[in-house]
Amino acid sequence: MASRSARAGIVVLIATLVVLLGGCFGGGHAVGSPEHPAIPVGKSSQSIEWAGTTRTFNVYRPQGLSDAAPLVVMLHGGFGSGAQAEGSYHWDAEADKGHFLVAYPDGQGRAWNAGSCCGNPSETNLDDVGFIGAVVAAIKGQASVDAARVYATGMSNGAMMALRMACETDLFAAIAPVAGTLVTDCSRARPTSVLQIHGTADASVPYNGGPGKALKVNGTPRVDGPPVPMVTAAWRTIDSCAAPTSTTAGAVTTETAACPEGRTVELISVADAGHQWPGGVRGPILERLGLPQPSTALDATDTIWQFFSQHHR
After folding, report:
1. Closest of 225, 213, 231, 219 to residue 111, by C-alpha
2. Rounded to the nearest 5°, which phi and psi values hold at 241?
3. Radius of gyration of the chain from its Cα atoms, rounded to whole angstroms
4. Are 230 and 301 in contact (CB under 8 A)?
5. Residue 216 above 80 pLDDT?
């Protein structure tokens, strides 16, 4: 029979293994005990209970992540998913270089309630603002996250959701909507750094506003929002920015406004680019939706991270 000290050692060993292995399966807990596993290195999938349903999200944690790491929340587009966004926009590779965490939440029914768009989440007024806040809280409970360096980006419907998050919460130090527009009330927004990226030939979310072309899927909502430059102008007002300056390099025009307390509002327009994530991968879902090949004039992911890295809450 094993001695008391040996049995105690076995218990400690088992507890340690639970912590190490549990991170592959756990969700929404604090760090440091078998019941509250830390986020493992690499890719992991998690779930939390929210508003009476089980909601899911993926997390990527690079090797050698330091304490108080930044966190980027990447919101997929309509008909996409967290896994699709992770595969299409190369945020994992960017996190390896920049040493930050990435979260990929899944919209219910592959969509987000960004306001007047999109699909069932909008029609049922699903609390996606609360869900995304809960995802951030769950990750903070499992990793050392710098609360002053939490960011949100998104594609299309996910971009609209990122804008809604900035309009209704102060969770993010900066946001970066790609191929999206504002489809919710933003009259009570707090100052936030904003980078918008949009193709001038976007037919689904028109650069100049108005109803967009429906995608090649039955029941696809037609987005009807304001012109993209008008959204940027609204954020310059919210942030009390100076007049913007503009530069053009090839197909890319960048309009930048400096704002108090180090904030920035920026619009990057990609000439002749359609509804896409510039520098991303088209993939089978985007092919099925009839979307064009992404422009190579800009690496949106790297551009967004460089913008985020310059802004703290």
Report:
1. 219
2. -85, 160
3. 20
4. no
5. no
